[in-house]
Input
Amino acid sequence: MTANQGHPRALKGGSQAHLDIIGGNVDLMFDTTSSAMGQIRGGKFRRWPSPRRSAAELPDVPTLAEAGVKGADIQTWYALYVTAGTPRPVVERLAAELQATLKHPEVVARIKGLGGDIQPMSIEAFAEMNRVEFERYGKLIRDAGIKVDGS
Output
């Protein structure tokens, strides 16, 4: 999302932000590849994936690190969550079904077509990645002095 230049607190949705980028009203935005892929393919947007290149759709686009921006490892990821206390066998079954679904050729093609990469993880590996990301963004928020605006 982008901040409107005239009103820095006014966040806009993806479609309006895309128009602002194309129109030169905004210089930069962070968006998901799936949302921006049409503009990327149309040559309207330039993409910097991180931390590795998208081999399927954009193999020639450098990562942020390759472009000289160090320490900006930003990824969009999606996950399946369940309520705390869900019995372990149920969690394991859901995880197994999700892994099987992510192997279907139609699913693989759709995700790759949107510039995504499938990175299967164990339940434990995902829990650890989620914890690390939560701590990393919490530190970023604290270090930047970001506060919630009640309005």
Summary: Residues 48 and 121 are 24 Å apart (CA to CA). The two ends are 19 Å apart (CA to CA). The first helix runs from residue 14 to 22. Confidence is low (pLDDT under 50) at residues 1-5.
